[in-house]
Amino acid sequence: MDTRRALLDALAADDGPVSGPALAESLGVSRAAVWKAVEGLREDGFAVESTSEGYVAPDDPGYSGPGIAFGLDAPYSVAYHDRIASTNERARELAAEGAADVAVVADEQTGSRGRLDREWVAPSGGVWLSVLTRPDVPTARAPLFTLAAAVATTDAARQAGVDARIKWPNDVLVGGDGGGSADDDPTGRGGRKLAGILTEMEGEADRVGWLVVGVGVNANIDPETLPAGATSLSAERGGPIDRRRFAATLLERYAALTASPGALDEVLSAWRERASTLGRRVRVDTADGVVEGTAVDVAEPGALVVDTDEGRERVHAGDCEHLRDAA
Ligand code: BT5
User: Fold this and answer.
1) How many CA atoms lie within 13 A of 134 on its CB side?
2) Residues 270, 150: contact at Cβ < 8 Å?
3) Largest Cα–Cα distance in the chain?
4) Residue 182: what pLDDT?
5) Which of 49, 208, 295, 298 could form a disulfide with 203 if both were Cys (CB 3.0 to 4.6 A apart)?
6) Phi, psi at residue 187, to the nearest 5°?
7) Radius of gyration of the chain (CA)
8) Would you list the DSSP string of 315-326?
9) Cβ < 6 Å from ligand 1: which residues?
10) Which of 84, 102, 120 has most ligand 1 atoms within 8 Å of its beta carbon, as the pocket-test mutant?
11) What are φ and ψ of residue 116, in 5° steps?
12) CA 218 to centroid of ligand 1, rounded, Å
């Protein structure tokens, strides 16, 4: 891996072809190792060209399977699709075939879904991905993976220069803290929606079988083409972002946050630090009715703790609205 990366860098640094012997010398490896690295790169989708004078740098693979996988510091293989119905659906199929540790990534989705089977709009230019893992944890801890994905998405957005925050449980928003002006919070839902997360899983009570965490991020997309109240990284930044770097950061953060039971123990505090919901007045629509009050904390494994007129309640799932008269 390291020789391949060094070789790509060496080729990219030179305008013309570089001979095998010259590469071997500058990288401090044998000529056979150079040849092996070139073959490996070609297998991975980097079309290194051979000429009579030497090797030529391949075209940048850009936002593609090889492009995302190359140098990715996370234990996932990358299954890239230019266009697919839904990366979550594809990841579920892979799970049924017994696969694990795969990130399914698409440029465009034609049948993607949000929670409760809502439509998710996913044109070309977004970062639409689903991570399939088989973590050895009790099913009750599964919601921590959703929170970890929200933390990872927020961090990747901030690295791209967009000040994102998390709305419980799974929305990544921008704005919504500027005094409630219509521009800042067009739909009154607590900010402009940058990303959403959909987790699906199968397991027994004491153990997760497979887990698919699907993340949809409006990256390089004109918000005019998205539902009302949505925003994108390119709109917030005033220019396109590097989706390859963004996806790699997101996957690497998610992998680190979920790497072990000990790492999972840190997810709640990381989530709290990035949350916009805590301290706000909220109305949460749950299967058992509406809970309204002040959101005071998030508790294992991801429940929102709300102080209501009737006392303190823990909400495990629901749609959360930030009310404008923030406390
Ligand atoms: C979510 O649902 O926010 C979870 C979205 C998960 C999408 C990812 S993309 C990769 C993977 N593959 C899939 O098929 N899904 C996942 P929810 O909280 O239910 O929000 C859905 C609502 O958000 C919709 O009813 C719309 O109002 C709105 N919406 C739809 N598309 C949007 C977009 N691109 N940006 C912002 N809001 C959107």
Assistant:
1) 11
2) no
3) 81
4) 55
5) 208
6) -110, 5
7) 22
8) E-S-EEEE-SS-
9) 86-88, 109, 112-116, 118, 120-122, 128, 130, 171, 193, 196-198, 214-216, 218, 226-227, 230
10) 120
11) 50, 35
12) 10
Q: Which CATH architecture has domain 281-322?
A: Roll (2.30)
Residue 35 C-alpha to ligand 1 middle, in angstroms?
46
Q: Judge if 3-56 and 65-274 fold alike in CATH terms.
A: no
Nearest ligand 1 atom to the CA of 319 is: 18
3-state class of 229 per DSSP?
coil
For the chain, domain boundaries:
3-56, 65-274, 281-322
Q: What is the pLDDT along the chain (327 residues), one digit of tens a residue?
A: 578 888 988 898 888 899 999 999 999 999 999 999 999 999 888 889 999 999 998 888 889 998 999 879 999 999 999 999 999 999 999 999 999 999 999 999 999 999 989 999 999 999 999 999 999 999 999 999 999 999 999 999 999 999 999 999 889 999 976 544 555 665 656 799 999 999 999 998 889 999 999 999 999 999 999 999 999 999 999 999 999 999 999 999 999 999 999 999 999 999 999 999 999 999 999 999 999 999 999 999 899 999 999 999 999 999 999 887 644
Nearest residue to 220 via CA among 233, 209, 229? 233
Look-up: residue for tokens 């510091």?
73
| Domain 3-56 fold | Arc Repressor Mutant, subunit A (1.10.10)
CATH class belonging to 65-274: alpha beta
pLDDT given at position 184: 61
How far apart CA 284 and CA 257 sit, in angstroms, is 27
